[in-house]
Design a protein that fits this description.
The protein is α+β, with helices and mostly antiparallel strands and 142 residues long. It has five helices and four strands. It binds iron/sulfur cluster (2 copies).
């Protein structure tokens, strides 16, 4: 008999558009980019992949490239807390907060809830949708 996970009755989430996750908040400020992201975002911006990597990314051997948060925020956050690349935003941004590593009760109610006011608010996501989002992210970063 398979038992339901702790989030088996669903989890609530609604983005308040506070922009906090797009701003520099110390050691957890990373947006990794998958191969799929590196195909879509430069194209959307009209840049070559190499120009995009040079201008917007930190690239270190053995790691996925990540967006440069040199300043106070992601380079794509505008003054109204909107994402300039929203239609092709990175997979990690699209599937937040339903990442595999966040699907532990103490992580969800701890650091995830602390940094994101949308946690436990708004519409209920069912188990299947939560797992679909987590899996989609894992698959892009295999
Ligand atoms: S921290 Fe949460 S509520 Fe704020 S913009 Fe990010 S996802 Fe939305
Ligand atoms: S790419 Fe867009 S959604 Fe992702 S951190 Fe930057 S501004 Fe936020």
């Amino acid at each position: 008999m398979s038992s339901k996970p702790w989030y088996g009755n669903g989890l609530r989430f609604e983005c308040t558009q506070c922009g906090r996750c797009c701003k520099n908040h110390g050691q957890y400020t990373f947006v990794n980019l998958s191969e799929r992201d590196l195909e879509r975002i430069p194209k959307f911006l009209g840049l070559t992949r190499s120009a995009f990597l040079e201008k917007f990314c930190d690239v270190n051997p053995g790691f996925f490239p990540s967006l440069k948060f040199d300043e106070a925020a992601c380079p794509f956050l505008d003054e109204h807390n909107h994402c300039r690349v929203y239609p092709v935003r990175p997979k990690q941004c699209e599937t937040w907060p339903f990442w595999t590593e966040n699907l532990e009760p103490e992580v969800w109610s701890g650091e995830v809830k602390e940094c994101c006011p949308g946690i436990d608010q708004g519409p209920l996501y069912d188990q299947a949708e939560i797992e679909r989002r987590a899996k989609a992210t894992d698959e892009d970063f295999r």
